[in-house]
Design goal:
It is built from seven helices and seven strands, in the order E-H-E-H-E-H-H-H-E-E-H-E-E-H. It is of the alpha/beta class. It has a five-stranded mixed beta sheet, with helices on both faces. A two-stranded parallel sheet has the order 1-2. The mean pLDDT is about 95.
Length: about 220
C-alpha cells in the first residue's frame, strides 16, 4: 500500500527475473516503504497513486537479496527524481533522522521536517535556519522522549545546533545551501534507528503552477 504525500504517481516496473508472487510482493512492499513511501512534495495526495511490479520469469531464478537490492536502487533513483521534479522545485531536500527510538519515530520526524513550509522556503532561500528544523521536530509532541538538549541538527555535514557556527562555518554553509541538493541531518538520540526521506523546496513557481489553471 502506498502512503500519502506522493502527488500523482503511476509507476510500472518490469523484470525478467523469475520470482514467485508471494516473494515478489514481500520484496516490493519492503522496497516501497524505503523509497516511494519516503517522498513528499507537498503532503497532498492523489486517488491515482499506483505502483506495479511485474516479473516475466524469462531470465530464470535470481538471488532474492541481490534482486531486492537492485530493485531498491532503481526505486531510490525514481524517488529522488520525483522529489527533484516536484512542481516548481529548484532544490532536492534530503532529510535523515537517525538515533531514533524506532522506525516510526524516525520517519514521522523526518517527514515533519521535509513537509514544513518554513523549512522548504528556508532551503529555497539558501538560509541555514536551524530554528525552523527544530520547530518541525518539536511539532512531533507525541514523543515525550525527544529532549531538545540531546537533539543535534546539521546542514550537510555542518553542525548548527547545539554547537554554534563560527564565521568560517557560516561561509561554508552559505555556499552549500545555494546548491541543488540540500541534506538536513537530525540525530534525536532516543535510540538507534534511522530513516531518510526526500522532498523539494517551496517556490513561487509552485504557487503559480497551482494557482494559474482551472480544472
Amino acid at each position: 500500500m502506498i502512503e500519502p504525500n506522493m502527488a500523482t504517481l503511476i509507476t510500472l516496473l518490469f523484470t525478467d527475473a523469475r520470482v514467485d508472487g508471494t516473494t515478489l510482493g514481500a520484496i516490493w512492499r519492503r522496497v516501497i516503504d524505503r523509497t516511494f513511501n519516503c517522498v513528499s512534495v507537498d503532503t497532498d495526495t492523489s486517488t491515482s497513486d499506483t505502483t506495479v511490479c511485474l516479473a516475466s520469469g524469462a531470465a530464470g531464478a535470481v538471488d532474492s537479496a541481490a534482486f531486492e537490492q537492485a530493485l531498491y536502487e532503481v526505486m531510490l533513483s525514481l524517488t529522488k527524481q520525483i522529489a527533484r521534479d516536484g512542481e516548481g522545485a529548484e532544490k532536492l531536500i534530503e532529510v535523515c533522522v537517525d538515533s531514533a527510538r524506532d522506525a516510526e519515530q524516525a520517519k514521522t520526524v523526518a517527514k515533519a521536517i521535509v513537509n514544513s513550509p518554513l523549512v522548504k522556503t528556508a532551503v529555497h532561500g539558501a538560509d541555514p535556519n536551524w530554528g525552523r528544523v527544530a520547530m518541525a521536530v518539536g511539532k512531533c509532541s507525541q514523543y515525550d522522549d525527544i529532549d531538545q538538549e540531546r537533539v543535534v541538527i546539521r546542514f550537510g555535514d555542518q553542525e548548527v545546533y547545539p554547537v554554534a557556527v563560527d564565521e568560517a562555518g557560516l561561509a561554508r554553509l552559505s555556499s552549500y545551501m545555494k546548491g541543488a541538493d540540500v541534506r538536513i541531518h537530525v540525530s534525536l538520540n532516543t535510540g538507534s534507528t534511522a530513516c531518510t526521506v526526500w522532498g523539494c523546496d517551496l517556490t513561487d513557481g509552485y504557487v503559480r503552477i497551482n494557482a494559474d489553471y482551472t480544472t
